[in-house]
Design brief:
- Two copies of one chain form a homodimer.
- In chain A, strand 3, helix 7 and strand 4 form a beta-alpha-beta unit.
- The termini of chain A are far apart.
- Chain A is α/β, with parallel strands linked by helices and 346 residues long.
- In chain A, the strands form three sheets. Chain A has a five-stranded parallel β-sheet with strand order 2-1-3-4-5, with helices on both faces. A four-stranded parallel β-sheet of chain A has the order 7-6-8-9, sandwiched between helices. Chain A has a two-stranded antiparallel sheet with strand order 10-11.
- The first copy, chain A, folds into three domains: 55 residues, lambda repressor-like DNA-binding domains (434 Repressor (Amino-terminal Domain)), CATH 1.10.260.40; 123 residues, 3-Layer(aba) Sandwich (Rossmann fold), CATH 3.40.50; 139 residues, Rossmann fold.
- Chain A has 13 helices and eleven strands.
- At the A-B interface, helix 4, helix 5, strand 2, helix 6 and helix 10 of A face helix 4, helix 5, strand 2, helix 6 and helix 10 of B.
- Chain A binds a DNA duplex (30 and 30 nucleotides) through helix 2 and helix 4.
Chain lengths: 346, 346
DNA sequence: GATCCGGATGTGCACGTTCACATCGCTGTC
DNA sequence: GACAGCGATGTGAACGTGCACATCCGGATC
């Protein structure tokens, strides 16, 4: 005598209703925590659900309510620590609110690749979109394709067509640079990220502001690609000139590659050159020398992004957006500038 | 004279049909690439879709076909390089097949946390599940909750109730250990991962096999938690004993923390102690000293997982599962054992 | 020239849920 | 004691799509 619901199809709200001897609507009410249900009835319905191993069908619910309970994440470089951490935090926060997360990675940063990823997400009927590690182009495509759902970016973009978390990358970068200046460095090079990345641009801006404030001469920044390999390459080029005493790298990976190149060239960090990174990835405090960097709370950033987005989706009251200011963490890769004949005066 | 479809509701297949002067079924056929449609009719329908900015409603489609075109990913430690890379690869591969990816992270590895994440994914009506960086417990919970969809694990679990990629961690770990033995090391310590992790257990097994084969004495392995911080802690403890000449760490992060501790204690790597890691994260080749490690192609692993899973989902012919064998990468953190009075003999 | 066949298209229903509205019985009020 | 009001429940329709089946038309077959 096997249970009768073995007919291939999953049990529906109506099967539950039949077993509990109520109408399908009553079952629906139990599901949605409707107030006016007699406790006794509710209990009977829950019992029936348990017996039948009932699971609500989200497709059906989405169809009728046109709410998918899903948010999309558009991510670039999702394999690196920062974005990956934020994605995980987003997933956590979304789950807490009963939301699902659908991720699309930007393998390819061409407009076509971007449009493709967005199109993919839109097929899923997402209610909102979080854009991670964004590039300027992404927002242009996004604006052009009028997706019809609110979206949040993890970095201030300056655009007015969407919400953005204010992570004050400019201040973070400025503090990093000021730290070097405070140690007496006057010849500082910036190893930047790709300039179509919003955060790369912001970090460069912070650097330039600090240099400008201190009235120092400007070395042309080097445009990198965020990778440790590029850091190494850039370092190899830099050692040929040796017209600097410190480098501010736009992220930790590049900083680590950079230090490797300096080491290979016989330069001591921080004895000969000071290096500052950005992000404070977990290994930053363990590499040799330990890396002075700027800490970002990626987890908190992810959480806030979801809060902001869902707030917007549900259209309730405006949430206050507080600035997140990254924090300088001083470690062993920076030191006062070496006193040398040529660099003492002025 | 604004377009007439501004009535709030998104255009449906029927709106398109009306505009193209065909039946809704014809539109459906165009959508699904049905063969018997006159090119002229198809064109007219496509035109109408374009005009109305029509987008198929996935919820409706899922409801009627009971295929969600979505796979789930259950991930632990998704913020680290390996899992994050595999997740990105999974997303890519799935997207190529028109599939969406829904991720749930295991913040908390308690059975309740695991069950919660699985339940969350099941609500989404996924067609299959990829389990990343799995712990033994996950599969127990998974087996117990009889989710009714195929799932694939990224590591061989030895269980028979699901598919698994064969990434031969055991061989990888054995090669790492043999490399140390080949350099003359006889006192080798293993800094392992948590033993409820399948890959940690496999790496430990490879280590033990190599030690056993070489008939060396066994140092009790240290059980870590994968983090660089723990590596540092373990290293600080180890330097008090100094009864070893090499350490094989179960992943690169711990290896980096370890080297930091040795450095702080005045030990030279590889002069006094050799260190091997596992994974070959991008910074491994840039830290000081550059880290000898075992390379894993996380991207390929992710791709194969999707291929295997979708193959299972569609029930076509069995796919051949080829072993992926990780590759030893020798760098600067390992060297022949130092010749010292006590260790020359034997 | 009647018949059959297959290509091209249309008709109605089903999927599982929620929404709007209807119904029923009980309580309290004047 | 009639009636409003409300709590508890039921009824039917709708959401947008795909499937099974029906229909229509033109050409090939004998």
């Amino acid at each position: 005598m096997s249970p009768p619901q073995d007919r291939g199809r999953a049990p529906s709200i109506r099967d539950v209703a039949r077993l509990a001897e109520v109408s399908h609507q009553t079952v629906s009410r139990v599901l949605n925590d409707h107030p006016s249900i007699r406790p006794e009835t509710r209990e009977r319905v829950l019992q029936a659900m348990e017996t039948l191993q009932y699971r609500p069908n989200r497709a059906a619910r989405t169809l009728v309510t046109s709410r998918s309970n899903t948010i999309g994440v558009l991510a670039a470089l999702s394999t690196t620590y920062g974005p990956a951490t934020s994605i995980a935090a987003i997933e956590d926060a979304a789950r807490e609110q009963g939301y699902h997360v659908n991720t699309a990675n930007l393998a390819d940063t061409s407009p076509a690749g971007i449009a493709d990823a967005i199109e993919h997400l839109m097929l899923q009927a997402i209610e909102g979109l979080v854009v991670i590690a964004p590039q300027v182009r992404v927002f242009e495509v996004l604006a052009a394709s009028s997706i019809g759902v609110p979206f949040v970016s993890l970095q201030s973009t300056g655009r007015r067509d969407h919400l953005a978390l204010s992570v004050d990358q400019v201040t973070g970068a400025r503090r990093a640079t000021q730290h070097l200046i405070g140690l007496g460095h006057r010849e500082i090079v910036h190893l930047a990220g790709p300039q179509d990345w919003i955060e790369a641009e912001a970090r460069m801006r912070g650097f330039l502001e600090a240099i400008d404030d201190a009235e120092l001469g400007l070395h042309p920044p080097i445009l990198g690609d965020w990778t440790a390999d590029f850091g190494y390459y850039a370092g190899s080029e830099l050692v040929r000139r040796r017209d600097f005493t410190a480098v501010f790298a736009a992220n930790d990976e590049m900083a680590i590659g950079l230090m490797h190149a300096f080491r290979d060239a016989g330069l001591d960090v921080p004895g000969d050159v000071s290096v500052v990174g950005f992000d404070d990835i977990p290994v930053a405090k363990h590499v040799a020398p330990t890396l002075t960097t700027v800490y970002q709370d990626f987890h908190e950033i992810g959480r806030r992004a979801v809060a902001l987005l869902l707030n917007q989706v549900h259209g309730t009251e405006r949430i206050e957006v507080e600035d997140i200011v990254p924090r300088l963490v001083v470690r062993g890769s920076t030191a006062p500038v070496a006193v040398r004949p040529a660099s003492v005066a002025r």
